Amino acid sequence: MTRGDRARTAAKVVVGWVALLWLLEVVDVISGHALDGLGITPREPSELIDIVPAAFLHFGFAHVAANSVPLLVLGFLAALGGLRRFALVCALIIVADGLGVWLISPAHSNTAGASGLIFGLFGFLLVTGFVERRPLGILVGLLIAAVWGGSILSGLAPTQTSVSWQGHLIGLVSGVVAAYLFRRPAIPTRGA
User: Fold this and answer.
1) How many whole angstroms separate alpha carbon 88 and alpha carbon 181?
2) N or C: which terminus of the chain carries fewer CB neighbours within 10 A?
3) In CATH, what number is assigned to the domain containing residue 139?
């Protein structure tokens, strides 16, 4: 597969993912917000089944809009590394983030949205180049930190009551862990 083919495939997958998020929000609105109940309510055993669906659902169009651009960009960059690896990274982040939210979020809260995945993809892309010792990956990580680092840090503040800073933090940590678990071999250096 050429680089162009890989880029087109990555773009199609991520655009399709974001389109699905918008479609689900349309269904949610049409159904009188029936899907909002699929968010994660902490420490309720029956809510464990909602860990994966919660990452695809949002509380209104403004919520899904806020997550769309970062998911498009970070998802595309992560998917360039291969769709199988991208799927594994996303699955790990979504499940770990959902379990973490279920364990440590405040009682009686309802958490949903793709922001945990976004924070996870940020963490994954931030450290992958360093873990794999790939100069282009390091450059990508530094650029991502320059563009989104400030908003990522503000999203981790425990003082924010309108967002799940717990989900953001766990997503970020999960992404860093994914960078180690799903790393490719480092590029060998040539000797003199």
Assistant:
1) 10
2) C
3) 1.20.1540.10
